Queue: 3 jobs
Job 1
Amino acid sequence: MKKSLYVIGSEPLHEWERRNNYPSCIVLTGNVSANTFSELAHDFDYTKYKQISFDELFVEDILYKDGKSCTYEEYLSQFVCGDAIRLFVLIKLYLNIKIAKSFVVYRDCVYSADYKTLVHAPEATELVVLPFVEHIGNGACCGYDKMSVLKLNNGLKSIGKWSFIAADINKLELPHSLVSLGENAFLMSELESVRLSDSLKGIPDGCFDLCSLDSIKIPRSVKYIGNKSLRGLTWTDEIEIPEGVEKIGYDAFEAMYHVSLPSTLLEIAPDFYYEECIDDPNHPPYIEVHPNNKVFYSKEGSLYFKATGILAIDSKYNGPNRCCIRYQYDDNKLQKEKSQ
């Protein structure tokens, strides 16, 4: 197939298409501003092409009035993770440029040239991922708030960041072939039930944040639990972190009174737990840690460093009994006052 090179911003795209006899394959290049690229993405009709490629395309950083700057991708994240916006197809391709520089259009979907990565699927109530797909790209179905069914294929290896933000999916079963999830992959989705893959290496930042999970079983393959990754786990009172987990980030959990930590844990954020009910992130649940842990030990629900004996995380409530009293007070103040 003949490929035609389009330098973004050199001339209007429709004029370039007419001058080049409306090519079926387009190669995009240039050093362009974020505004120029966004304007092109807004008007770009990907269905006109069989193949879309990039050649040394660079979108410039955004410079603020105070002298600070950020990349185009960082700029997008402010809106994607805040407002669950839908992304234009050309922007999705750019977000996956590290995975592939050439993409093909097949049945209104966009894949990497080898068909192993699904980069874009039209918005619908159901998505069935085809058997040959190994990866779901960054932002593939971002903001699809009408999508209620997601059927993932066996053999799928990864799901990229922002892929299913705000999806209306209630139940999710990840195939055991899946190794990695991207940051904020299911942020603000309607998930209530999730089965994680036995091959999953980690639960990244924001992955299930602001969901409504009633429970979750963390597989032993998981090495890290990222910032705000399971803050959507709001309908359980306690959780056991399995052997294998080495790192837990800030605000990883919410609304529990008992947490059991493994012997493998090496690092945990002091504010790993966020208690929204009392608007205070400094009140963690009762903490227990495996006696064979080389870094920490627990005493009366608080966590200490073994090497120094210095307090690592102070459990203000000193155990589940006091937590239960607190919840009782929140639900019925009169009942607690009478008991005193």
Job 2
Amino acid sequence: MNKEKTFDEAMKELESIVDKLEQGDVPLEEALDQFQEGIKLSRHCKNIIEEAEKTVTQMVSESAEEKEAE
């Protein structure tokens, strides 16, 4: 993952890896490499979701503070 992938790009690539591995006709070494890449993509997606959750939580908190100040 040289450049930062968007969530959608990473999910699409992860789905492709899962589909390929589910077919079961991948040599062991390649399957291990694909599995490792899938783990990296999964972590990347998780990080994006966590950052989005933080942003939404902060926005909701700020909105509540603004309403209290009114």
Job 3
Amino acid sequence: MFDIRDTSANHFLRPLPPKAAQLIVTIYGDIVEPRGGVLWIGDLITLCADFGVNESLVRTAVSRLVSKGQLKGEREGRRSFYGLTAAARKEYHLAADLFFGPAEADCDWILTLCTSAAEQSELLGSGFVQISGNMFMAANRPDRPRLGLPFRASVLADDTESLRELAFQAFRLKDLARDYALFSETFLDMQRLVSKTVPPKTALQYRLALVHAYRDIKLRDPRLPKTVLPDDWPGFAARTLFADLYRQLSVPADTFIGEHLFDRNGPLPVQPDAVRRRLETLSATS
């Protein structure tokens, strides 16, 4: 149960506080990537400390992200900066489309016959489920991998209920629905808090907590056609709440960014075009 007396941003991420690498990915995705992709490590350490992640854990996580080809180090005098690699920026753009882009249209399906164990593993990590033997199924979204022997499929029988039952079981929608509902329950409490003016630093901390929690669920969402989802699917309400809160928090949060966070050239821009586009899209689709 939420205790209104505890207004720390980290409270909204309990009972599982973020790990260093996951939190850094959230920070770079929300703040850094749309502002050029580079941040002074001192600012990164300060932002992570607000969520109980200490400097040692941050530096270890940054080193691992460098070794994985996600970040690259830069020096300016005695200061160290870390920027996203070109490959990482491409990945972050795709992820940002999920969180900040327009609501996805209805779609048909992909069925693929895949016998390679390595490719099967990639399919399962990319929104597919195994429906029988070597046959896999996913919603036909543009970013789905085309592995094995893929077919584009649509349902011929007029039996929406059977398809909904198949999707509910195969894609484990019960678990996803629970997580979306819990997200809404938790962040409705945040919405009550931000209905009043919050300081810029607090607004940024809240926004990072919001993005971190929503990102964790959205990346597990198979993004199924609306025709197989119930009318009261909790993902719809979670999306609306995310969009509303993100917009509410962004003016003070972006003000703090422009005054306190730095790359090699100085303060990060307050609201560059990429950030404005996010807010415009969220306003249009919330």
